[in-house]
Request: fold
Amino acid sequence: MARLLVLLFVFALSAAAQAQNWPHRQVHIIVAYSAGGTGDVVARNLSDKLGQALGQSVVVENRAGASGAIGARAVATATPDGYTLLMGQTAEISVNQHWLKDNGYDPETDLVPIALCAVVPLAMVVPKTAPYSTAAEYFAFLKSGKPSTFASAGSGTPGHFAGELLKLRLKANMTHVPYKGATPALNDLVGGHVDMYFPGMPAVTGLVQSNSVKFLAVSSGTRSPSAPNVPTVKETSGIDNFDFTLWAALFAPKGTPKEIVARLNAEVNKILSSEDTKARFATLGAEIRTFTVEQTAAFAKAESAKYLQVIKDTGAKAE
Reply:
């Protein structure tokens, strides 16, 4: 027993020393999707400044596949030493465990929240040739029972669930049309092949500015600061608790020293609070929230509970 206590004491001292000396080599941020998405943009906007703050380079890696499960699993099983992090997003943190089988990781037990980096509302958009020009007119159309289609960037995405809840609450005759990503979904929306889509605001900003689509509402619970004159689905439809967003938060493998997690939280929040970062994110339609580690954990847990309830309520199935 005495030897065991000595070994545990030595191990604790070694771990503390490693945390104090961290980082002494390159840090990797894994994005579980291909380049160009919300999480990738957020990670790359943070990486250079985070590297300067830490005194070591911070490299962003894209490991796409299985709705984010491949990248998330790689981080969940990595050595918890602060050198492998995850820019976790809505699907792999709050949806997959309720939606897919055999993820190979549990986001609540295998990953440690560090900081919430950005929250991006979804834009409810319709073709420019649509016979309705406001959210109220569109909802009246849906309530009439006429058939309609809604696109998504893929089954199990926030846009998919937003459409399913709209269908349920308005008792609408809507059919889900899943695509392999935002770009093909937007192309078909512009072409008038689908009737509505909930993309992230960064993906559709250019199309809105060029009047290629009609921007009727935002999916978040409150209006977006980047589009203050656009109403929310909740306020226009009367559907309570309608709040769907794309978000990105930094995570580490379970067992990562608390000192490293605390430092990362402080450094990320300092970067997010800088005026140039605020301005950059605002152009993307992204909202910055400087959360503590505990607030980030509570946010992710609440999102997980929300999507589990939506899946139960709508009866949506993986396609």
